[in-house]
């Protein structure tokens, strides 16, 4: 049996041996060297696992915000379906009100030529809205081909790890690169890019036109309906008061029928909805028209603005290489060089390809000398 003395001596002896080991200069150096080597080896292993040649502070910030981006992207992706259904339901409700409430009223009051004009214009506008909306949501915006190395590229996408042609940007909601990306539109549940930019703009334009037409055309009907609703409220109030006071000794005065009530409320709804959409969408359409006139997309607007300020600070002038001049920008946008007159393309629905393939941005051959000089740096 070991005594208390041996129990104390054992650990003390071990401690002494460790101290002698650390204290010995000959033995301390290899120990420290081993520790340093292991530390370096661990660092190399960690770096090789996390190596990314595109890494930097931007990548670190992106990585830190990745959960928030993921949440926002998924919410927008989910909202996209809801928004598309909302557009279809609201547009259908306006068409239904026009047929069920407005048409019976104007049939009694409008002259035949006026009726014909309204009939043809409203249906032409409705066809264009439906056509361009359908095209905008179903036409893919255009994606750079993967695995091809014969295309002119300007950078590599950090997300896709594929070459990116000029004007191409990565959409985090679609999770892929989009040619000449303008923005991701939740109302279309689709990206607006090279192949559907015109459909998006045409939809905005004709929808604004339709809303202005509806709110302007139904102004008199709206005023009458609004006055009738106010009267309706007053009558209901008087009736309730009379019932409460028990002052009716005879039949109460007739109030509005159910159909009349629905018609008046529908007309007020139609006017308010169309006016609001006309204002909001009209502003957006004007903004996009300005961007198209400048040969910019919504994303390029921010990039070019930054670049303009950067060069301005250096005393240099920024030139947008895709700006061919206002008129030629519109010609390129409307695909005027594919055979048909631009007016025909604007007024009539058509399925056509825009100018170019969205990857190379050489100026079209018909760009005037003036436009060429605008493009020159
Ligand atoms: Zn990408
Ligand atoms: Zn997208």
Question: What does this molecule look like?
Answer:
- There is one protein chain.
- With 377 residues, the chain is mostly helical.
- It has one domain.
- The protein is 66% helix and 5% strand.
- It has twelve helices and six strands.
- The strands form three sheets. A two-stranded antiparallel sheet has the order 1-2. Strands 3-4 form a two-stranded antiparallel ribbon.
- Helix 4 packs across helix 8, helix 5 runs antiparallel to helix 6 and helix 7 packs antiparallel against helix 8.
- The longest helix is centred in the N-terminal third of the chain and has 44 residues.
- The chain binds zinc ion (2 copies).
- One zinc ion (ZN) binds next to strand 4.
- GO terms for molecular function: protein-cysteine S-palmitoyltransferase activity.
- It catalyses: L-cysteinyl-[protein] + hexadecanoyl-CoA = S-hexadecanoyl-L-cysteinyl-[protein] + CoA.
- It is a multi-pass membrane protein.
- It is an enzyme of class 2 (transferase).
- Keywords: Acyltransferase, Membrane, Transferase, Transmembrane, Transmembrane helix.
């Amino acid at each position: 049996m070991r005594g208390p003395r041996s129990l104390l001596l054992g650990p003390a002896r071990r401690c002494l041996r460790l101290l002698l080991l650390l204290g010995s200069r000959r033995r301390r150096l290899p120990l420290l060297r081993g520790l340093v080597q292991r530390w370096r080896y661990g660092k190399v292993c960690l770096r090789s696992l996390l190596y990314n040649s595109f890494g930097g502070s931007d990548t670190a910030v992106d990585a830190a915000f990745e959960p928030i981006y993921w949440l926002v992207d998924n919410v927008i992706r989910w909202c996209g379906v809801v928004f598309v259904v909302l557009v279809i339901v609201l547009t259908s409700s306006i068409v239904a009100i026009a047929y069920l409430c407005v048409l019976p009223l104007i049939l009694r009051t409008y002259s035949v030529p006026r009726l014909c004009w309204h009939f043809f214009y409203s249906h032409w506008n409705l066809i264009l809205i439906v056509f361009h909306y359908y095209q905008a949501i179903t036409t893919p915006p255009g994606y750079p081909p993967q695995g091809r190395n014969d295309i002119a590229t300007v950078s590599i996408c950090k997300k896709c790890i594929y070459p990116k042609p000029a004007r191409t940007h990565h959409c985090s909601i679609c999770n892929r690169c989009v040619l000449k990306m303008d923005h991701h539109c939740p109302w279309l549940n689709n990206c607006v890019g090279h192949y559907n930019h015109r459909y998006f703009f045409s939809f905005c334009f004709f929808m604004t036109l339709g809303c202005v037409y509806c709110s302007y055309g139904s102004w008199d009907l709206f005023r009458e309906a609004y006055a009738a609703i106010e009267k309706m409220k007053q009558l209901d109030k008087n009736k309730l008061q009379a019932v409460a006071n028990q002052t009716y000794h005879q039949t109460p005065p007739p109030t509005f029928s159910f159909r009349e009530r629905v018609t008046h409320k529908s007309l007020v709804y139609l006017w308010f909805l169309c006016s609001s959409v006309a204002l909001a969408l009209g502003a957006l359409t004007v903004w996009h028209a300005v961007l198209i006139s400048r040969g910019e997309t919504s994303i390029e607007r921010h990039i070019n603005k930054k670049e303009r300020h950067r060069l301005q600070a250096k005393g240099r002038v920024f030139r947008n290489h895709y700006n061919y001049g206002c008129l030629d920008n519109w010609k390129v946008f409307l695909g005027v060089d594919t055979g048909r007159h631009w007016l025909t393309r604007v007024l009539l629905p058509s399925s056509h390809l825009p100018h170019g393939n969205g990857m190379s941005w050489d100026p079209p051959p018909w760009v005037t000398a003036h436009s060429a000089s605008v493009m020159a740096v």
